[in-house]
Amino acid sequence: FYVAEVPDSCCHLEALRSELAGFCLCSSLAIGTTTGYRLFSLSSVEQLDQVHESNEIPDVYIVERLFSSSLVVVVSHAKPQQMNVYHFKKGTEICNYSYSSKILSIRLNRQRLVVCLEESIYIHNIKDMKLLKTIMDTPPNTTGLCALSINHANSYLAYPGSATSGEIALYDGNTLKTACTIPAHDGPLAALTFNSTGSKLASASEKGTVIRVFSIPGGQKLYEFRRGMKRYVNISSLVFSMDSQFLCASSNTETVHIFKLEHLTDSRPEEPPTWSGYMGKMFQAATNYLPAQVSGMMNQDRAFATVRLNISGQRNICALSTIQKLPRLLVTTSDGHLCIYNLDPQDGGECVLIKKHSLLGSGKTEENKENDLRPPLPQSYAATVARQSTVPSTSTMPGYSEDGGALRGEVIPEHEFATGPVCLDDENEFPPVSIRDP
């Protein structure tokens, strides 16, 4: 199966048959099933609210919702070359497009809608669905790997620039021009994701041992994290937190890694003259005389926090979110469950499972029977978690809405679009269109 992430409230999840494939969310979740698709609101840890369910199109494997609006893009196995755009609250089709081959992924923000095929990429204007640009003869991209910045001020698009190496092609979706190429890894790419502002891009190769973060649009390497050295893994998702302070990586192993994006400065206090401090300085100085590959490995940062899952060998998808004003790690498992963990933003360490929801059933939750067995958290953080409000409250994070548009998703505010408002209650905004062949 294919999975991709977009931060903020914009969601994507693909499922083959009745198995959950993945998600990316901050306040809402979309899943595709054999019977159609479902949209959920994530405003509370204890409850998973179903916003909408559609059974009109079977075998849905791509679902993309435009933030908290009523616009949703769907692709099914029945017609894998056709993209359907719906106003789900009205139950009406806005338009549909057909392409020359199977649609592998779709990305959208407030300005652009991107359709990725194996050897071409189509860029549409989200206002009227007009085709603006076709990037032809891209390197073979069998998984449809690509990432689109949710920041409409730049609308940067990243996709593999080579099928044999880890080169990233960066494209400006607003000016419709190539921005740069980034030699990110030696081997082919496996994962790409932008932060919420489009100023950083994270990547991983098919080896899955090293994750790198680059500045955008310059392409300079900012961070390098080592997920592991003992074995190669398949990175199934990369996602930034909304404030870009954390980066989460999920793979086909039993461990989910969370890295903290911070730089050590020269202004840190002087260490006391101890033997360990002396050896540490000698070790750091020695890296200047070692080969680049060796010194680079020594300077790579390890995970800030982790989660140990009870399954391995299957793809698990992660997201970092703020629910009820507290940081959470969300992980979907291949058996169709959403697991919610507490994340300690100060001390990191092992994340604690607090809730497990079923996604393929009727939205019922499953109590975490391990709660009474888990060790207590540090008092400062545990006390904060214990004071959770039973009533969902609005996050203090700028531009964040916890209800995911479940109650007021009919109209998209004017400031959320690059040029002028788009009111999905307006019958004339996206008039129904017959099938088009771009």
UniProtKB/TrEMBL annotation:
Q: Which UniProt keywords apply?
A: Autophagy, Lipid-binding, Membrane, Repeat, WD repeat
Q: Name one GO biological process term.
A: protein localization to phagophore assembly site
Region (Disordered) residue ranges read 385-438
Primary place of residence? membrane
GO molecular function terms listed in the Swiss-Prot or TrEMBL record: phosphatidylinositol-3-phosphate binding
Tell me the membrane topology, using the record's own terms: Peripheral membrane protein
Q: Name one GO cellular component term.
A: phagophore assembly site membrane
Q: Where is the composition biased (Polar residues)?
A: 386-398
The superkingdom of the source organism is: Eukaryota
What is its subcellular localisation? Preautophagosomal structure membrane
What's the family? Answer: Belongs to the WD repeat PROPPIN family.
Which PANTHER family does UniProt cross-reference here? WD-REPEAT PROTEIN INTERACTING WITH PHOSPHOINOSIDES WIPI -RELATED
- Descriptive protein name: WD repeat domain, phosphoinositide interacting 1
- In its UniProt entry, the species of origin is given as Bubo bubo
Q: What is the lineage of its organism?
A: Eukaryota, Metazoa, Chordata, Craniata, Vertebrata
